From TrEMBL:
Name under which the protein is recorded: Cytochrome P450
Binding annotation for heme: 432
Statement: the UniProt record of this protein carries the keyword Oxidoreductase: yes
One Pfam short name: p450
Family: Belongs to the cytochrome P450 family.
Named cofactor requirement(s): heme
Lineage start: Eukaryota, Fungi, Dikarya, Ascomycota, Pezizomycotina
Pathway: Mycotoxin biosynthesis
Amino acid sequence: MVYEHGCVLEKVPVIGRYSVLLPRTILNFIYAFKSQQIIERGYQEFKDRTCQFIRIDGQMLLLPLNLLEELSSIPNHIASRNKALEHDLLGRYTGISLILDSRLHHTIIQRKLTPRLEQVAPVLEGELAGLFEEYLPASSDRWTIFQPHHVFAKISSRLSARMLVGPELCRNEEWLEVSVKFTESLFTSVAILRFLPPCIRSFVGPLLPSYWQSRNYLRIAKGLLSPVFEKLLEEHDTGKWELDNTNEANLNMIAWLVDSAKGADRDASTLAHIEVLLALASVHTTLQRLISTLYDLTANPSYIEDILQEIGEVQSSGWSISSYAKLRKMDSILRESQRMSPPTIVGMKRIFQAPYTFTTGFHVPAGAHVCLPTFAIENDPAVTPSPEIFDGLRSYRKRLASKVSSHGKDQEHIFTTPEKTMLGFGFGKTACPGRFFADVVLKMVCVKMFQEYEFKFMEAQSRPKNFVLHDWIFTRPWDTMMVRKKNNGFGSF
Ligand code: HEM
């Protein structure tokens, strides 16, 4: 079977091609607005077989679930995840091509951030204490309209900033703007350019304001952070500074990056660029999760009672990193919310850099771009009964049952634990390295939010709908809702 990027792989059925007469640009346009339905139909029709769909930049193979484990274990030099991400986010136009040369943004989270969450959590709790008062315009005697996207962008960027750039820069308005707006301008450019054939993108890209905005935000970040990195690198090289794990001022990426960077990565401008990539990976993912969870709980308020009771029990012995692990009902709610509103329709994207034959005999040629229908898998009634219902304690019940059957081990059906049918964080060794940090931040913000505030949707409105474009799922930034400060609400932080 011969595959050239852009040609239909022989014998693999094509989905979403309403007519062979329709040109690729039209099919791509349809996919941009109907990806959920196209992928869902493909998944249901070809559950155990590969099919493919047409995008403007070529075909994508939609692999069946039975290839997930093998796919996740294929080394990156054969099935490249960073090439797929760079390709998808159009690195040439958006400044993320650095991920092809450096993996530091990934390893730094695994090696430095996650093992230090116990020290990082109290620092974030301290930062969170004043954030709602600062950004959420709420009073206890009346309902106030607010835009969740606006408020949670501020809260998420401030908490991420404390971890990314440390105590001195975490309130710097320029950094906070970069950490939110770089991602927004990047996605605006990608969303537009993905409607256009690759051959004309290099002409149209520079005509987009968002293209220049991303470059400008990257320039601002480098201007701000490079001198800080230069100074610390110099001090580290000359033995004047060493990472001190007991010093709160060292609990941030600037210190960890300087302590870890080697070779080509050991450069102030590169490290500043990595900080922007980390903001890209963390701020909006957390923000989207917070908004979806708020919507889901406002639409299903009985769960708010459940989690308040749980928070009350947990906080009686004080807050520490283990407290967040004990919020099992909240954990289940976050998982359920992510199942219904994950970041993407398809996941586990890889570009094959060499031919590969799966153990099932399915052969993938070099150049093939593959993915799995993660949203359809998680929402398959055979996997999740009544998937259209928000059942906040679905995973909690499964967790209790598996704890009984595994003689007390409590490690399954947890928000941060990917499963074959729960793929919002990816799967296997390549799964999102930031999920443990995200877990703590999300739980911390939820504790504060539901202890101290009440929420409702706008008059005569129900849960705002998600917005699907290409294969991304977003909350709509323009949606509003109402908030009131609780009279008797007292917060943990
Ligand atoms: C609820 C929030 C989040 C979700 C749903 C999420 C989801 C994902 C997914 C699906 C992947 C791709 C995994 C794969 O391809 O196998 C990923 C990768 C990644 N995530 Fe997250 N993530 C979240 C939060 C975070 C946070 C807070 C950070 C940083 C602290 C982070 C850092 C990363 C990084 C560095 C990668 C790897 C990118 C690469 O390989 O170049 N994520 N995430």
